[in-house]
Amino acid sequence: MRGSKSKEQKVNHIVSAWCDMDGFCLGQKKAEEKPNEITAIPQLLDTIQVKGCVITVDAMGTQTEMVEKIKQKHADYTLAVKENQKKLYQEISEYFEDDELLKEIKDNGGYKITMEKAAGME
Predict the structure, then answer these.
(1) What is the enclosing helix (H) or strand (E) of 68?
(2) 50, 61, 76, 100: which has the fewest Cβ within 10 Å?
(3) pTM for this structure?
């Protein structure tokens, strides 16, 4: 949260569950420090109903444990992958180099590329 840091207090790291379709926050969980967001996300998922929903998580949350938690909650997921996750990134890149598969995905409207220009800006 921007502006939450002061001389007396460290910056707040808040994980939020946001409903894009309805435009409101379903819940929030405070993480003590930024690296703890990874553990805060499953804790937040435990407090809300996500069955049948699609959960999207940034690259920090692309963890095996995260996928297992989402599957336990009977939801689907879309996880971000960056090049610093070398093996996973390489396997996904090779998968999408298959021209026939790529054509089929594009023809069915299931293909989108986003490029990050700067942190937090698309």
Answers:
(1) helix 64-72
(2) 100
(3) 0.69
